[in-house]
Amino acid sequence: MKVAISQLAVRYGATQVIDGLDLSAGPGEILAVLGPNGSGKSSLVKAVAGLVPYAGSITFDGEARRPGRIGYMPQDIGARAALTVLETVLLGRLGRLGLRVGEADLAAVDAVLSELGLHRLAARYLGELSGGQRQLVFLAQALAAEPRLLMLDEPISALDVRHQLEVLEIVRRLTIARRLTTLVVLHDLNMAARFADAVAVICNGRLARFGAPADVIDERMLAQVFGVEASVALAGDGRPNVTPLRASRR
Amino acid sequence: MTDVLLAPLSRSRAEGVAALHGAIARRRAMVLLAGSLGLVASLVLDVATGPAFLSPADVVRSLAGTAGERSVDAIVWSIRLPVAFVALVVGAALGLSGAIMQTILNNPLASSYTLGVSAGAGFGAALVIVIGVALPVPEAYAVPVMAFLFAGLACAGVYAIGQTRDASPEMLVLGGIALLFLFQALLSLLQFVASPEALQQIVFWLFGSLQKATWGKLAIIALVLVACVPCLMRDAWRLTALKLGDERARGLGVDVRRLRLRCFGLVSALTGVAVAFVGTIGFVGLVAPHVARMLVGEDQRSFLPASALFGALLLSLASIASKTVLPGAIVPIGIVTSLVGVPFFVWLTVSCRRAFW
Amino acid sequence: MFRTVSRLLAAAALIACPLAAGAAPTEITDALGRKVTVELPVERVAVNFNFEEFTAVAGLEGWRRVVGISRAPWEGWRPAIFSRYKAVIPNLADMPDIGHTDDGSFSAEKVIGLKPDVLLMSEWAYKALTTARDQIEGAGIPIVVIDYNAQELERHLASTRAIGRVMGAEERAEELAELYRREYADVMARVERAKGERAGKPRPKVYVELGQGGADTVGNTYNGTMWGRIITLLGAENIAEGRLPGPWGQLNPETVIAEDPDLILIAGSSWVNRPKAVRTGYDMTPDGTRATLRPYAERAGWSDLAAIREGRIAAIEHGLCRTLYDFVAMQFIGKLLYPAAFADVDPAEAFRDYHEKYLPIPFSGTWMLDYGHD
Questions:
Q1: C250 near B CB under 8 A
Q2: Helix axes B169-193, B196-207, angle to 10 degrees
C-alpha cells in the first residue's frame, strides 16, 4: 500500500518532536529512516502506527482510515515473559484470536515460522533465546498478522553482524515477495545504504533529506546532520559505503 | 526448559505448528485435571476433619443423606460443607485476583494483600463494627458491603496514584504499598477506640476465618466469581500481550490503559467479596499464581484458570491444616497461610529464578 | 420471630402428645427477654461464662451435668480461682473446651458435637457470634443468654432465675436473687441517706485503676462501665468519666493530679506472670496485699495528693466486678465513700457468708483492703 505523510506534527507535552514532515512510501520497497539520537525517528514510526496522537495527515492508499493489518516492531526493551516462541508469534494475530485458536491462525504462524527458519525453536521460552533469535521472533510476530505495512524500530541495534545481515535480508526478501511497504529505523548507515530502496533523514523533527541512498548518504549530509567527518565511497553495486573519520569540532 | 516431550515435535517441520500447539494445550489440560483431582481430594478431607472428631463413616452417612444423628447432620451440612466450599471459592477468587495483579502490574510480588486492597477491605469492615456506619442494607450484610466498597476504594486509590505517571507498573506498586500502610494505620486507630466486643470482631478481620461461612455467603461469593470469569477470559489474549511490555502490547493494538482499568475493577470485586466474608487471608494471591506459572506458563488462557484452581487448592489445604495442627482447636487460617506461604515463596524465588523474571 | 412461634407450636404439640415421657419442653425467659424453649430436665449443659454464678445456683450437682465450657475466660483469666474449683469439681480438669470469642476459637462444631441440651451463653458472646449461634440453634440446641455484665439489677436477677430454671434449681435461684435484690436495695438506700447528709457538698471524686502492670505503668481506668459504673451508681464522680475515647483506657496521669481525687481504688487479682501486680484473692494475707499496694501509695508524683496523704487508697479484687456478688464490692466502696452511712456493714463478712451458703470452696484471703485503716 502507499503511505503518504503530510505536514506531520507530534508533540509530547511541551516538546515538539516532529515539526512539519512530509514523506511517502510505496509497496514493495524499504524506506530507511535515519537520523541522530532524539531526532524523532521513533515518534515518526509510532505516529504512522497510530500509537501517538499527531497533527497533519497520514493516508493509506489515499484513505485516512488506518488498515487493520499493520506489523509494528518496537525497540527491544528486553521484556522477558515466560511465553514460548509459538505463543509470542501467535500474539501477532491478537485482533482475531478467540479463546480457541483457529486453524487459520496456526497456519499463518506455521508459515511465518518457516519463512524465518524458526520452527525448531517453536517450543522454547523467550528467556532462553539469544538476542538475535528473539529479534527474529518479534519480527515473526509482526509478520504473523499478514500485514501490508511493516514498521521496524531499530530492529538490529543489539545484534552481531551476522544476525544483522540475516534479519535485513529476510526483511528485504519478504518486502519484495509480499509487496509490503516497509519502514525501518536504523542507526547503521551502511546497512541502510545496502538494503533500503529509499532513505529519509530526520533532523530535529524535520525532514532533512529524502531519496535514493546514493543521493542522500554523502559527506555533506553526514557533516550537517550527524556532525561527523566521514569518507563516502560508492561500492560496486552503486550503493554508498561510509567510513566515519572523526567527530567535527563545533 | 524445552519440554523433552515436545522437542521431537518441534524439530519436525512436517508436523507443523498445529501439532505442537495441540500438544502444549493437552499438557496444560493435564495439569488442570490433576489440580482438579487434588482439589476434590482436599475438599473431601476438609469435610472429614474438624474439632468434633466425627468418624469418616458418620460423615459419609450424613452426606449420603441416610438417617443419622441430628448433631452429625448439623455439623456436616451447616458447618463443614459451607466452610469447605467457601475455602474453594475464596481461594479461587484470591488466586485469580493475584494473577491479574501480577500481570497488569508486571510485578511478581503483587497481590491484593501486598497492595493494600485487602487492608482497605478490612478497614471498611472494621468501620461498620466499631462505629456502626449506617448503610441502607440489612445489618448482616453491612459489613461485607463496606468491605467490598473499601476494596474498590483502595483499588481506585492505587490507580489514581499511578495516574500521575501514566500508570507505569512501578508507580502503581508504590501507590499500593502506601495504601497498605495507610489502611493499617487507620485500622490501628479504630482498634484504639474500639470497645472490647468490637475489638474481638476486628481481630477476626485481621486473621481471617472460614468458620463464619454459610450457604448464603457461599452463593454470593460464587456468583461474583462466576460473573467475573467470562469478563476476564475475554481479555485473556490482551493480558498475554501485556506480558511483553506496554510498548509491544500497544503495538499489537491493545488499549493498555483501559485494560488495566477493567482489570482493577475485577480485582476489587474479587478481593472485596473474599475479604468481606472471611477476613484478610494473605499469601494465597501471591503463591498460587507462581505455582500456576511454573506449571502452565504465562499464556493467560491457562494461567488464569490455573491460578484460580491452585488458589482454591491452597486454601482448602490450609483449611485442613488449620484444623489438624492443634487437634480440637482451629488455628486462624490467615496465620496458617502466612506461616506456610512465606517459606514456600522464598523457596519458589530461589529455585526458579532463571526463567521467569 | 418465626422461629419462636414455630418452637411454641412444637412445644404445644409435644405437650399434647401422650408419648412425651419425662422430658417436657418448657419456655424460659432469659436475661435478654428472649423466650427460649428448653427440654427439661436438662441432662447435658454447656456453659460459656459466669461460672461462679452457675456454681452458686446449680451447685456441685449441676456440674455433673456440664459437658463443655469456655476454658479461657476462667482458667486463663482467673487461674488461682479456677484451680480451687478444679479441686472440688471432678470433671472440671478435663472439661472439653468449646472455645472463646476473643481469640476467635469458639467452635459451633465443638458445641454441637458435645450434644448438650442447652447452651448458657454470655450476652457479649451471643452478640458477637452471629453465625455460630445460628448454627447451634439450627442444630436444635437452645441458647439461654445470661448477662451480669450490663451491671443492671433486673438483668442480674433475670440471669440468676434463668440459670435456676434451666438447671432445675429454682428455689436456690430465687433465694440468691432475693439476697442480691435485698443487698442492692440496702446499698442504694444507704447511699441516698449519705447523699442527704452531704447535701450541698460536691460529690466525692474517685479514681480507679487496674493494678495489673505495676505502679510504674499507667493501668486502664473505666468510663461508664465496670468500676466506673459502680462508682457512678454509688453517687460519686469518676474522674475518668467522659475523658476516654472508649469504655476503658489509660487516663493521662496529669489529669489524676489535677483532679486530686478523694479516693483512689486499685483493682488487683491473682494473675500469673504479673510480678508487679496488686495481689488479692484466696491466697493473700492483708499484709501481703498491702505490700503489693505500697508502690502505688508511694507512686512518683502522687505524694501531694490528698488521698495519698490521708491514706484513702484501697485495693479491691477485680473479679468482684460484674458478678452475682458484686454487691460486696459496692458495700466496700460505699464504706470508703460514706463511712457513717455504712458503719455497720462488713463486706468481708458478707463475702464469707456467701461462700459458706452458696459456694463449694471455703472462703479465705484478702479481697478488699483499705490501705489507711486495715
A1: no
A2: 150
**C-alpha span between A245 and B26 (Å, rounded):** 59
Contacting residues for C239 by C-beta, under 8 A, at least 6 apart: C205, C206, C207, C251, C255, C256, C259, C261
User: Which positions ≥6 away from B16 have C-beta within 8 Å?
Assistant: A106, A110
The position carrying cell 529505523 is A185
Cell numbers linked to A124: 522454547
d(CA B67, CA C243): 60
Instruction: Pull the grid cell for residue C74.
Output: 476462667
Dump strand ranges (E) for chain A.
3-12, 15-25, 29-34, 55-60, 70-73, 149-153, 181-185, 198-203, 206-211, 228-234, 240-247
Give the one of A81, A92, A110 whose C-beta lies nearest to B16's C-beta.
A110
Asked if C25 contacts C15 with a C-beta cutoff of 8 angstroms, the reply is: yes
Q: Distance from C69 to chain B by nearest Cα, in Å? A: 14
CA distance B202 to chain C (A): 10
For residues B229 and B241, the answer to whether their CB atoms sit within 8 Å is no
Contacts of B333 in chain C (CB under 8 A): none
Contact C67, C43 (CB under 8 A): no
Residue type, A23: L
C-alpha–C-alpha distance, residues C338 and C197, integer Å? 10
Give the 3-state secondary structure of residue C246.
coil
CA C82 remoteness from chain centre = 15
Name the H helices within chain C. 2-16, 51-63, 79-88, 108-114, 123-128, 130-138, 153-167, 170-197, 226-233, 253-259, 286-297, 306-309, 326-337, 347-358
Q: Cβ distance B270 to B228 under 8 Å?
A: yes
| Separation in Å, CA C212 to CA A163, C274, C319 | 78, 7, 12
Q: Are C103 and B203 in contact (CB under 8 A)?
A: yes
User: Helix, strand or coil for residue A17?
Assistant: strand
Q: Is the dihedral of CA B275, B277, B282, B286 positive or negative?
A: negative
**From CA C54, how far away is CA C69, in angstroms rounded?**
12
**ipTM for the predicted complex:** 0.84
Rounded to an integer, what distance in angstroms lies between the CA atom of residue C313 and that of residue C293? 9
The residue to which cell 439476697 is assigned: C179
d(CA C297, CA C309): 9
Task: Spell out the residues 6+ positions from residue B84 whose beta carbon is closer than 8 angstroms to its own.
Answer: B43, B46, B47, B316, B319
Q: Does B73 touch chain A (CB under 8 A)?
A: no
Answer for the pair C184, C190: CB distance below 8 angstroms, yes or no: no
Closest-CA distance of chain C to residue B302, Å: 37
Q: What is the pLDDT along chain A (250 residues), one digit of tens a residue?
A: 888 888 888 888 888 888 888 888 889 999 999 998 888 888 899 898 888 888 888 888 888 888 778 888 888 666 667 788 998 999 988 877 777 788 888 888 888 888 888 888 888 888 888 877 888 899 899 988 888 899 999 888 878 888 889 889 989 999 999 899 999 999 899 999 999 999 999 988 888 889 999 888 888 888 888 888 888 888 888 888 989 888 887 6
Distance (Å, whole) CA C154 – CA C184: 11
Decide if B211 and C131 are in contact by the 8 Å CB cutoff: yes
Give the one of C103, C113, C248 whose C-beta lies nearest to B75's C-beta.
Answer: C113
Chains contacting chain B through 3 or more C-beta pairs under 8 A: A, C
Q: Which amino acid is at B355?
A: A
